[in-house]
Every structure is written in structure tokens, then in C-alpha cells.
Design brief:
Shape of chain A: globular
Structural class of chain A: alpha/beta
CATH topology of the largest domain in chain B: Alpha-Beta Plaits
Number of domains of chain B: 2
Radius of gyration of chain B: 21 Å
Bound molecules: flavin-adenine dinucleotide, thiamine diphosphate, magnesium ion
Radius of gyration of chain A: 25 Å
Largest interface: A-B, 48 and 34 residues
Largest sheet of chain B: 5 strands, antiparallel
Strand content of chain B: 35-45%
CATH topology of the largest domain in chain A: Rossmann fold
CATH superfamily of the largest domain in chain B: ACT domain
Number of helices of chain B: 4
Order of helices and strands of chain B: EHEEHEEHEEHEE
Distance between the termini of chain A: 96 Å
Strand content of chain A: 15-25%
Number of strands of chain A: 22
Strand order of the largest sheet of chain A: 3-2-4-5-7-6
CATH class of the largest domain in chain A: Alpha Beta
CATH superfamily of the largest domain in chain A: Thiamin diphosphate (ThDP)-binding fold, Pyr/PP domains
Oligomer: heterodimer
Number of domains of chain A: 3
Number of helices of chain A: 26
CATH architecture of the largest domain in chain A: 3-Layer(aba) Sandwich
Helix content of chain B: 25-40%
Distance between the termini of chain B: 39 Å
């Protein structure tokens, strides 16, 4: 029998669903395969509806961990990472991870449960005004009080998180909005963002001015930032550098955007950048800032920063223009698109004189480099990083670091050739980031070898996520650079507080035993000769491995530009140490 | 320098907080902020004055645009504009002072809106300096209470834009439209 009822357009696409089911359905349609979360009362309807979804939920041990995992997932893959938590304490535990993602322009969507809409404002059990709390640390946030708003909100949130300058978006959904039912129509739930304009592009005149500066510069430098990786402009930047012969200095978050082994790569700039890189910037007559935001750890004292250089700033966020450094030509737009405009018009110029003079700036840097000091039997963190690099450089390796001295040694001694092979918290400098972010990275890229490099201090901030690794059977390797100190703070005390080591020595647990308690294969390394075998053993073992590297306690990251000092005024490794080491 | 912005925003809950929070967060000091309806019900209009140099003024504009609910920002500082503030001033006006106060109000084209045995309440609309002027001459009589709305402003001449619509940019988020995912 034939049914002659005419199908309306609506009945073809719309069906009746709960807000909770719509949530998961929309996440699936946004391409989400995995979310990181932790349940509780106000988000329980959503958890209940999870059973009807193809999405894999990873149970974390602390909501901060969920946000860093979402962040690590995003940084490793370029896709939006998702974290879920309940209202009140669940939501406030996310604050650090949201702020971390905000400062490093990482696209994550955080979903929190909220008390019933009728209870809002009544100080109900576990009620926190999380949209109020996160207002200054999200790119945008939403409070959803009706099931009918869920679909459009999710679509907008994903679009906002990943477009333009990416960033975290939070969706707070009341319990009744999750429970109640409404017609679900994906097509009809199109984002409506009349005030959002993520795609700007420069004026033709500005391109001409930029080309003029480029062609007239004698001592130009490219400052390569995180925006290159976000934009996916690695090939364009390389072509630009090769065609123009302009050398490239990297920010911490720009590492990997330009191959470390490339002859035009100078290395990292800034507070712990190589001395010659900072000198090169100070002597330059043109800076080409590619997707970097002149952070204070990059510029040092602004009054003396590259004072003889003209500046071209290619940047997607107009609010970054002239924020810290006054620029001559701003090119506001997506870096990749801007470079596509510039590339056919740039001329190749012989820069050998400038490159030679940069080579001379290297001076005795190689002699001062701890790698080149004779082996004294001490285990230095720099050695560990160097060995780790040599053992893992050939594969598809992602190193996720925490914050502190080990982070800087990683940046200096691990030579990253590819984008998204280093994941680190730069802007907020969040200790405790590494372990959970590495979990997110591993989930995003299961084929990659993921290594955590973290300090003994920061590791203890989120070590509960070892359980998540085990529960999810993830192969993540963990290198603890154990110096018995909050090393980076100790270093500041050494330099600026007369070695008054207040509250920086750490009495640590036996990390190897701790790892074993979680069922993770663990070992302790105390001598350099053991480092390579330990790394190899970790690579070969098919579960997670933890290595406790007991390194030199009072080691120092050189060079260092003291906060507020000029970029060229660096504290260098004293030649006395160089000599003593030679005596040993 | 005092900059005057006209800011059109979506008429939604929490938008005022977002704008105010932005100024606090970026350490720009708001001199005055007014908000009200426009000719379109879905759009509200703010007049914001803030002390800023030229570079800061541009960054304020760029930062306002980063708020998703902000539809249009116009810096009308150096443009011919009508700028109005409204004040109500309650002045002590006993028998003998009363006629002087009334006279002063008349000179400033202000209106008396409430008369009580011991006081007069005067309403005045105008540019800020005009109101400052009236206040100054009234002060010797004793200003008991005063309230000002903060300024509202509008460009002179043929309407520049008026309130923008809210459904002008229907974001199509087809994959190719997302120019730069991370
Ligand atoms: C202990 C410690 C020490 C540190 N020392 C140093 C140091 O010595 N040197 C150093 O460099 N950093 C250092 N940092 C990191 C520093 O604080 C900053 O995080 C880092 O310099 C920021 O790099 P960035 O500007 O490249 O990246 P981000 O801060 O991520 O900025 C990226 C910029 O690119 C723009 N952008 C995004 N997408 C696009 C696009 N599609 N097109 C164009 N532009 C785009 C963004 O709007 C933004 O302005 C240190 C951090 C810590 C914790
Ligand atoms: C959450 C948080 N708290 C405090 C700090 C300040 N801080 C920066 S580095 C550092 C020391 C880190 O010590 P450890 O994790 O042992 O690493 P190390 O420097 O010794 O390599 C501290 C306390 C921070 N960055 N993050
Ligand atoms: Mg330490």
C-alpha cells in the first residue's frame, strides 16, 4: 500500500529529542570522537544520554586534567578538543585549563552542567556562575536554559572556537535544558553570529608598503610564531624564507613551525633564547612578525627592543596590532592567505653578508654549550633531553612539556623539525599541564610516540591522571626531570634573591614506586650512561613507561634575559663554570 | 584624550557585562557609559566615553569587535556630532534664594521639574560643559542632590548607518568556509 501523506520539509529533518541527546548528536556531527570529562549531578542527564552516542568518553581524575587533555588534543591535531564537567566545583576546576587555552589560542569547547533554570540565582547546591567566572578567559561563552537552544549553541561554539584566532568556548547547560524535549533540526540550527568577523584581509596599499620594506632591508629577520602552525602556513613560511634568504627566529610556541635543521633557522628568541638570536634581533633593520604577539618574554624591555628595525606584523587579530610593539606595516589577516599574496611578489636578494655577520655573533656560544663540555659523570637535564632527541628524532614524536627549567632545556636541546611536535603551555605557563595534555595528544594521534617531559614539581600537580592513562590503556612515556627543586623559581632566587631558597626544595616521593603503584613500568636513572638504554626500553615496551631522571640539582638555564632587562643584556653561563668543568 | 564611541550591540542578556568587563580587563577607564534601545528592537546602542591616546583608541575598537555580541563600533570623537547629557539638580532654595535660582535656570534654558518648600529640582539637557556651568553657579546656594545620565551622542547630518541588522551575516560553516582551523 502506498502512503500518500505529503512529507513536509520539516518532518523530513526534524525529530523530537531531549536536550542531552541533542548535545551528543551535535558533537558527533561536529566530528567529535572523544570527550574528556567527569560526571556530577547537574550534568547527569547528559551522561545518561551518552549510551546512545558513538562518542568515546574518557574519565579523567580531575576536571583541570580534562581541559588540558582537550587542549593537548587540539594542539596535536588542529581539531577542537572537548571537556565535560558538572556544575559548581566541576566547572571551577576547569578554570586553569580554560585560561591556559585562552592565552595560547587553543580551540577547546568546555561543556558544564548547571542547576535547573528556575534555581539560577538562588545559591542552589553546586551553583556557580561559571559564565560570569569565565567571561574574561573564554573567547565566548553561553548559558543554555532551553533544549531548543542546544543545537545552535553547539554549532556556534565549535565555529567560534576554531575560526579566526582560535580559543576556548564554554557552554553552560541547565539541568532542565538537558532533560526537556524539543524538535531537533540540525539544518535549521545554523550559527547566527552577526557581530563575528573572523576573516579580515589587508589593503593592497599595505602589501605594497610591506614589499617595499622587505626589498630595501639589509638586515631582516623573520619572527616565527604559533600563528604559523595555527594557520597551517609552514610550507609558505619556508618558501618565503628560502626565496628571500631571510633567517628565521622562533618563539617558544613557534617551535616546529620552521625546521630546526634548516640552514636559515636561527633558533629560539627571547628570555631563554640563544644569545646570537637575540643579538640578531637587536641588530636587525627589519622584523617580519609572522603570527606572534611580541610577548614580554620575547621582547624584554620594550624601550630598547629592536630599536633600529622597521616592523611588519602579519596577524589575524587586529587587537594585537601596536599592543606591545609599534609596527610600521600591519597586515591583518590569516597568515597563509597573506603569504599567498606576498610570495609571487617577493624578490630574491643576496643576504650572505648579513648571514655571515649572524654567524659571527655565535662567537663562543658553542664552547659555553653544556653539550660540548667534557662528560663529568654528572647527569644534566640538557643531556637527558639531547639523548631523548637522538633516540626519538626519527619517528613521529610529540613531546609535551610542563613548565619550568626542563621546559626551557627541552626548547633548547630537542630539535623539532615538524609542526605540532612540541606541545607546551607558553602564555599562562601552567604547571601540571604536561601529563594531561599528553593524554589528549595521544588520543588525537594514536600513531605518534608521545613523551611527557616534566619537572618533579609540576608532575605532582596532576599526577592523578596516571590512572587515566592506565584505564584507557594509553602508551604515553613520561620523563620526570627530577632536580629536587622548583627549579625555575630556585634559579630566580639564585640570581635575584641572594640564593634564599625559600619554599623551593622538594621532598619527593619515589616516583618509580609511585608509577609502579599505578601499574606503570617505571625506572630511575642517575647516570648519563643509563639514559639512552632507559629511553630505548621505554620505546620498546608496549605500555606506558615512567622514567625518573635524577639530575643535577642546582643547574641553571642559560642564557637568561632578566625580566625587564633589554633583550641583548643576557646572563650567560659564567666562563668560570666552563673552566671548572674542563678541569674535572 | 576623551574618545566617544557609539557601539551597537545585540540586545541580549549579559552583553552590558561583557562590554564593561572588557574595559576593566584591559585596564581602560570608562568615563561614562550609557545604553538604551534603538529603532530596531534586537539592537541596543551604547555611548561610551573613555580616556585614551590614538593607538589605545584603535585597540579599544578592535577589542570591542572581538566581543561576539558587538555589531558595529563608531569612534565619533573627531566627527561633527550632537552630544547630550541630562542632569537633575536639587538645589536648596529658601524664600529669598528662590528667585535667583529660577533666574539662573532660565539663563541656562533648564526646567524646574519639582518645587518643595526648601528646594527646587532643575532638569537640564545639553553638552557636558553647559551642565557643568549651571552646576557651578548653583553650588553657592547648596546642591542637595544631583544625578547625571552620562552622555548620549549621534553624528550630525544624514544618518550614517543607523542600527545594523542582526541577521545580515548568516554564518555558513561549510568546511571550505572555515579558512583556518588550528
Ligand atoms: C618558563 C617560561 C619561559 C619562557 N621563555 C620564552 C622564551 O625565552 N622565548 C619565547 O619565545 N617564549 C618564551 N615563553 C613563552 C611566552 O610566554 C609566550 O607564550 C610565547 O612567546 C608566545 O609565542 P607566540 O606569540 O608565537 O604564540 P601565541 O601567544 O600563541 O600567539 C600567536 C599569535 O598568532 C596569531 N594568530 C593565530 N592564528 C593566526 C593566523 N591564522 N594567521 C595569523 N596570525 C594568527 C594570534 O592572534 C596570536 O597573536 C616562556 C614561557 C614560560 C612558561
Ligand atoms: C600552577 C603554577 N604554579 C606556580 C608556577 C610558578 N612556577 C614556574 S616554574 C616553577 C617551578 C617548576 O618546578 P618543576 O616542576 O620541578 O620544574 P623545574 O623548573 O625544576 O624543571 C614554578 C613554581 C607556575 N608556573 N604554575
Ligand atoms: Mg624540579
Amino acid at each position: 500500500m502506498k502512503d500518500n501523506t505529503p512529507l513536509t520539509a520539516k518532518s523530513m529533518t526534524a525529530k523530537s529529542m531531549t536536550g542531552a541527546s541533542i548535545l551528543w548528536e551535535c558533537l558527533e556531527r561536529e566530528g567529535v570522537k572523544t570527550v574528556f570529562g567527569y560526571p556530577g549531578g547537574a550534568i547527569l542527564p547528559a551522561y545518561d544520554a551518552l549510551k546512545g552516542s558513538k562518542i568515546h568518553h574518557i574519565l579523567v581524575r580531575h576536571e583541570q586534567g580534562a581541559t588540558h587533555m582537550a587542549d593537548g588534543y587540539a594542539r596535536a591535531s588542529g581539531q577542537v578538543g572537548v571537556a565535560v564537567a558538572t556544575s559548581g566545583p566541576g566547572a571551577t576546576n576547569m578554570v586553569t585549563g580554560i585560561a591556559t587555552a585562552m592565552l595560547d589560542s587553543s580551540p577547546i569547547v568546555c561543556i558544564t552542567g548547571q542547576v535547573g533554570s528556575k534555581l539560577i540565582g538562588s545559591d542552589a547546591f553546586q551553583e556557580t556562575d561559571i559564565t560570569g567566572v569565565t567571561l574574561p578567559i573564554t573567547k565566548h561563552n553561553y548559558l543554555v536554559t532551553h533544549a531548543s537552544e542546544v543545537a545552535r549553541t553547539v554549532r556556534e561554539a565549535f565555529y567560534v572556537a576554531r575560526s579566526g584566532r582560535p580559543g576556548p568556548v564554554l557552554i553552560d547547560i541547565t539541568k532542565d535544558a538537558q532533560q526537556s524535549t524539543c524538535e531537533f533540526d540540525w539544518e535549521a540550527a545554523k550559527p547566527q553570529l552577526p557581530g563575528y568577523r573572523p576573516d579580515l584581509s589587508p589593503e593592497p596599499k599595505e602589501y605594497e608598503q610591506a614589499l617595499d620594506l622587505i626589498h630595501n632591508a639589509k638586515r631582516p629577520v623573520i619572527l616565527a610564531g604559533h600563528g604559523i602552525i595555527i594557520s597551517g602556513a609552514m610550507a609558505e613560511v619556508r618558501e618565503f624564507a628560502e626565496r628571500t634568504g631571510i633567517p628565521v627566529a622562533l618563539t617558544l610556541l613557534g617551535i616546529g613551525a620552521f625546521p630546526a635543521g634548516h640552514p636559515l633557522n636561527l633558533g629560539m628568541m627571547g628570555m631563554h633564547g640563544e644569545a646570537w638570536v637575540n643579538h640578531t634581533i637587536q641588530e636587525a633593520d627589519l622584523l617580519l612578525a609572522f603570527g606572534m604577539r611580541f610577548d614580554d618574554r620575547v621582547t624584554g624591555n620594550l624601550k630598547t627592543y629592536a630599536s633600529n628595525a622597521k616592523k611588519i606584523h602579519i596577524e589575524i587579530d587586529p587587537a594585537e596590532i601596536n599592543k606591545n610593539v609599534k609596527v610600521d606595516v600591519p597586515l591583518v589577516g590569516d597568515l597563509r592567505e597573506v603569504l599567498h599574496e606576498l610570495l609571487p611578489k617577493v624578490e630574491s636578494i643576496d643576504r650572505s653578508e648579513w648571514l655571515d655577520s649572524i654567524d659571527k655573533l655565535k662567537g663562543d656560544a658553542a664552547v659555553r654549550d653544556i653539550q660540548n663540555l667534557p662528560d663529568s659523570g654528572h647527569l644534566y637535564a640538557a643531556h637527558v633531553i639531547n639523548d631523548l632527541w637522538r633516540e626519538t628524532r626519527d619517528g613521529d614524536t610529540v613531546v609535551v612539556t610542563d613548565v619550568g627549567q626542563h621546559q626551557m632545556w627541552e626548547a633548547q636541546y630537542y630539535k623539532h623539525e615538524k609542526a605540532r611536535s612540541l606541545i607546551t603551555s607558553g602564555g599562562l605557563g601552567t604547571m601540571g599541564f604536561a601529563l594531561p595534555a599528553a593524554i589528549g595528544a595521544k588520543v588525537a594521534r594514536p600513531e605518534a610516540d608521545v613523551w611527557v617531559v616534566c619537572g618533579d614539581g609540576g608532575f605532582q600537580m596532576t599526577l592523578c591522571e596516571l590512572a587515566t592513562i592506565v584505564q584507557e590503556k594509553l602508551k604515553v612515556n613520561i620523563a620526570i626531570i627530577n632536580n629536587g627543586f622548583l627549579g625555575m623559581v630556585r634559579q630566580w632566587q639564585e640570581f635575584f634573591y641572594e640564593r634564599n631558597y625559600a619554599a623551593t626544595p622538594l621532598l619527593n616521593p619515589d616516583f618509580a614506586k609511585l608509577g609502579e603503584a599505578y601499574g606503570i613500568r617505571s625506572m630511575t636513572v642517575t647516570e648519563r650512561s643509563q639514559a639512552v638504554p632507559a629511553v630505548r626500553a621505554a620505546k620498546e615496551h608496549d605500555g606506558p613507561v615512567l622514567i625518573n631522571f635524577r639530575v643535577e640539582q642546582e643547574d641553571t638555564v642559560y642564557p637568561m634575559v632578566a625580566a625587564g632587562a633589554s633583550l641583548h643584556e643576557m646572563i650567560r653561563r659564567p666562563s668560570k663554570i666552563v673552566e671548572t668543568a674542563e678541569d674535572e | 584624550m576623551l574618545n566617544t564611541y557609539v557601539v551597537y550591540v545585540e540586545n541580549k542578556p549579559g552583553v552590558l557585562t561583557r562590554v564593561a568587563s572588557l574595559f576593566r580587563r584591559r585596564a581602560f577607564n570608562i568615563d561614562s557609559l550609557t545604553v538604551g534601545r534603538t529603532e530596531k528592537p534586537e539592537v541596543s546602542r551604547m555611548t561610551i566615553t573613555v580616556d585614551a591616546d590614538v593607538d589605545q583608541a584603535k585597540r579599544i575598537e578592535a577589542n570591542l569587535y572581538k566581543l561576539l555580541n558587538v555589531l558595529l563600533v563608531e569612534n565619533i570623537t573627531n566627527q561633527p556630532a550632537i552630544v547630550r547629557d541630562l542632569a537633575m539638580i536639587k538645589v536648596a532654595a529658601t524664600h529669598e534664594a528662590r528667585s535667583h535660582v529660577l533666574e539662573l535656570a532660565g539663563v541656562f534654558r533648564a526646567r524646574v521639574v519639582d518645587v518643595a518648600p526648601e528646594s527646587l529640582t532643575i532638569e537640564i539637557t545639553g553638552a557636558e560643559d553647559k551642565i557643568d556651568g549651571l552646576l557651578e553657579v548653583l553650588r553657592p546656594y547648596g546642591v542637595l542632590e544631583m544625578v547625571r545620565t552620562g552622555i548620549v551622542a549621534m553624528r550630525r547630518g544624514k544618518s550614517s548607518t543607523g542600527a545594523p541588522g542582526t541577521n545580515s551575516t548568516d554564518h555558513d560553516v561549510a568546511e571550505e568556509d572555515v579558512s583556518h582551523s588550528v
